[in-house]
Amino acid sequence: MSIALVTGCSTGIGFATAVAMARAGHEVFAGMRNPSGSPELAQLAATENLAVTVVPLDVDSDESVRIVVQQILAAKGSIDVLVNNAGIGGGGPVEEVELSDFRKVMETNFFGALRCIQAVLPAMREKKSGHILNVTSVSGRMALSPQGPYTASKFALEALSEVLAQEVKQFGILVAIIEPGVIATPIFGKAPQRQWSSHYPQGKRMRALFAASLQNPTPPSVVADKIVEIVGSCDATLRHPVGPDAKPLLEWRLSMTDEQLIEWAGVESDEEWASNVKRDFGLEVQFP
Predict the structure, then answer these.
(1) Residue 216 gets which letter from DSSP?
(2) Which of 26, 22, 28, 9 is nearest to 48 (CA)?
(3) Given 3-state DSSP classes, what are the helix, strand and coil percentages for the chain, each rounded to the nearest 5?
(4) Does pLDDT of 35 surpass 60?
(5) Chain-centre distance of CA 91, in angstroms?
(6) Residue 216, Cα to own-chain centre: how many angstroms?
(7) Is the separation of the CB atoms in 30 and 14 below 8 Å?
(8) Is the previous residue joined to 146 through a cis bond, with omega within 30 degrees of 0?
């Protein structure tokens, strides 16, 4: 089986992916910024005797990524699979979100993935094989306010992945974009909660929409199982919507023009917006 490096493994999709990959017989190096603060994965691996090695990895750091990749290559000779999962949330009105917050989200979600890609590619290219899976989101193909920082980072990673797939095809390297819908992960709790200007009501609307969607939660294991399936089958398909709402959401976006989306999301009345959500998604949203 393959040697896999998975980033962002302390919780959520990364944790589930590391476990699912190891249970499928792969040897997993599970990266997380602070392993001592998230010991659950190592404990589970020890209990089940899984081939999971937790490594300290900060995808925001050139040096951290370089050291981890070099250590794995020195110990194992190759990295066959890279799963770029590490990511953070971030949103708010474009007018009001500080540039430093935009940069923080882009640093982790986009440049973090790029760092890891650049670090593993030389060895994959020389071996003429490899699989790079970038976890984006349906938000990488549909932009809803007020998620400017987050969705911009995911759009960017989608574009990078599409370019990368073209460049590395000749070397036998596969690229996959994993596009989860609304998944029940701690990312919703980790994003700082701020009160934005009353000029922009979209923040409370999006929180209400997520809350309604999570009433029937989809676990991270759904995404993890799909990643295992893609790796195991060497599926060359580029984009993979994952989760029961992912494909319907993308089809909903494609069903309307850009101007219709702007009208849908930009209505002044919360009641009209809630009515739109009920009509299109069958969800009852409630405002605190």
Answers:
(1) S
(2) 22
(3) 55, 15, 35
(4) yes
(5) 15
(6) 20
(7) yes
(8) yes
Q: How many CB atoms lie within 10 A of CB 37?
A: 8
CATH topology of domain 3-199+216-245: Rossmann fold (3.40.50)
Cβ burial 182-208 (10 Å sphere, 16+ → b, else e): bbebebeeebeeeebeeebbbbbbbbb
pLDDT for residue 192? 58
What stretches of the chain show up as alpha helix (H) in DSSP?
A: 12-23, 40-48, 62-76, 99-106, 112-127, 148-168, 187-190, 202-213, 221-233, 246-254, 258-265, 270-281
For residue range 156-184, list pLDDT tens digits in order. Answer: 999 999 999 999 999 999 999 999 999 99
End-to-end CA, the chain:
50
158-162: long-range contacts at Cβ-Cβ below 8 A with a sequence spacing of 24 or more?
160/110, 160/113, 160/114, 160/117, 160/134, 161/132, 161/134, 161/136, 161/238, 162/238
Half-sphere exposure of 95 (CA within 13 A, CB side): 7
Residues that are catalytic: 150
Task: Please tell me the distance from the alpha carbon of residue 82 to that of residue 32, in angstroms, as a whole number.
Answer: 14
Domain boundaries, the chain: 3-199+216-245
Residue pair 68/29 in contact (Cβ under 8 Å)? The answer is yes
